[in-house]
C-alpha cells in the first residue's frame, strides 16, 4: 500500500513539475508548439484528394484532340542559325608551307617541331614499313600490337639515353598522363614550369602530388622554391626523408614555342640545390 502511494505521489510531483515548466517558457514558444501540433493533426486526418486527372480522366477523343493541337517548339530559335564557315581543305603535303583552298600558306599550326615531315629518308622508311607491316596492328601492345621495330627503337633509345630500358607510347598525351603518376605519388612534390602543356597538367593532377609551379623558364624562381622547400625539410626531416621531388618541364613549350634551358636544369639537379633530389 505504501509503495502504491509512493508511486502516486511521484507521478503527481512529476505532473506538477511539468505543469510549472509551461509557466516558465515564453508564451510565444507555447503558441508555436500548439500551431505545429494542429498542423500535423490536419495532415494526418485530411484525405488525399488526388490529382485532377485522376478525378476526370480524358477520353480517347480528347487525347487525340490535344495531340493534334500540340505544336513542338524548335530546339534552336528561328533565325539564330548562322551560316556555316567554309571548310578548310588541305591540298598539299603538310610542311613549313601548305596549300589550303588553292592558296599557299605558311603553316603556323604544325606540331612538327623536329622537322621530320618532308624528309625523303623518313618517307621511304614509312613506305617500306607500310608494305611490310600494313598500316597498323589495330590493337594495343599488351595484346598483339608489339612488333620487332618497337623493340629495336626502345633498345636504341635506351642506349642513347644511357639507361637500362626505355618504353615508347603511341600517343604523347597518354605518355605524359601515364608516366608522371607512375613515379610521383601522394605526398611527393613536383616542381613544374607554369607553362607546361595540358597533358602534363593532367598527369600532375593524376599523381595527386603537391605541385609547385615556377615562372616560365625562370631558373631563379625555381631555386627560390627549392630553398623554401629545403627550409621546410629541415623543420621536418623525417617527412623529408620519404618525400620524392620531381622536376617537370618541356624541351620545346607547346604553349609559347620557347626552348627550355635543359643544361641549367640538369646542372641544378646534379648540384642537388639546395638539398632536394630532383628526378
Query: What share of the residues lie within helices?
Result: 40-55%
Distance between the termini: 89 Å
Strand coverage percent: 5-15%
Main sheet attributes: strand count, strand direction, barrel closure: 3 strands, parallel
Question: Could you report the average pLDDT, rounded to the nearest whole number?
Answer: 81
Uncertain regions: pLDDT < 50 for 5+ in a row? 273-279
Q: Shape, please? A: extended
CA-based gyration radius? 38 Å
How many DSSP-defined strands? 5
How many alpha or pi helices? 12
Order of helices and strands: HHHHEEHHHHEHEHHEH
Q: In order across it, which strands form the biggest sheet?
A: 4-3-5
Name the structural class: mainly alpha
Write structural notes for this entry.
The protein has 279 residues and is mainly alpha-helical. Helices cover 51% and strands 8% of the residues. The protein has helices at 2-24, 27-45, 52-55, 60-69, 120-133, 141-145, 148-161, 172-183, 198-207, 219-235, 237-241, 262-271; strands spanning 97-100, 103-106, 189-193, 210-214, 245-248. The strands form 2 sheets. It has a 3-stranded parallel beta sheet with strand order 4-3-5, with helices on one face. The protein has a two-stranded antiparallel ribbon with strand order 1-2. α8 packs parallel to α9. It is extended and about 100 Å long. The relative contact order is 0.05.
Brief write-up:
The protein is mainly alpha-helical.
Amino acid at each position: 500500500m505504501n509503495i502504491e502511494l509512493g508511486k502516486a505521489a511521484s507521478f503527481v510531483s512529476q505532473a506538477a513539475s511539468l505543469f510549472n515548466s509551461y509557466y516558465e517558457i515564453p508564451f510565444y514558444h507555447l503558441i508555436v508548439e500548439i500551431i505545429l501540433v494542429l498542423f500535423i493533426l490536419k495532415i494526418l486526418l485530411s484525405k488525399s484528394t488526388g490529382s485532377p486527372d485522376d478525378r476526370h480522366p480524358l477520353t480517347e477523343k480528347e487525347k487525340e484532340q490535344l495531340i493534334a493541337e500540340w505544336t513542338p517548339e524548335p530546339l534552336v530559335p528561328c533565325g539564330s542559325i548562322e551560316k556555316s564557315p567554309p571548310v578548310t581543305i588541305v591540298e598539299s603535303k603538310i610542311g613549313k608551307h601548305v596549300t589550303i583552298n588553292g592558296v599557299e600558306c605558311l603553316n603556323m599550326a604544325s606540331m612538327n617541331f623536329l622537322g621530320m615531315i618532308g624528309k625523303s629518308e623518313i618517307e621511304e622508311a614509312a613506305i617500306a614499313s607500310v608494305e611490310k607491316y600494313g598500316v597498323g596492328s589495330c590493337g594495343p601492345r599488351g595484346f598483339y600490337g608489339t612488333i620487332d621495330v618497337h623493340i629495336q627503337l626502345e633498345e636504341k633509345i635506351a642506349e642513347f639515353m644511357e639507361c637500362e630500358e626505355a618504353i615508347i607510347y603511341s600517343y604523347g598525351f597518354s605518355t605524359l598522363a601515364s608516366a608522371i603518376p607512375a613515379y610521383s605519388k601522394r605526398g611527393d612534390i613536383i616542381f613544374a614550369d607554369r607553362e607546361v602543356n595540358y597533358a602534363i597538367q593532367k598527369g600532375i593532377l593524376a599523381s595527386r602530388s603537391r605541385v609547385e609551379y615556377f615562372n616560365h623558364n625562370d631558373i631563379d624562381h625555381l631555386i627560390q622554391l627549392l630553398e623554401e622547400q629545403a627550409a621546410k625539410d629541415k623543420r621536418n626531416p623525417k617527412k623529408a626523408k620519404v618525400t620524392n621531388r620531381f622536376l617537370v618541364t618541356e624541351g620545346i613549350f607547346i604553349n609559347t614555342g620557347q626552348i627550355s634551358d635543359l643544361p641549367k636544369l640538369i646542372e641544378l639537379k646534379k648540384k642537388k640545390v639546395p638539398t632536394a633530389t630532383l628526378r
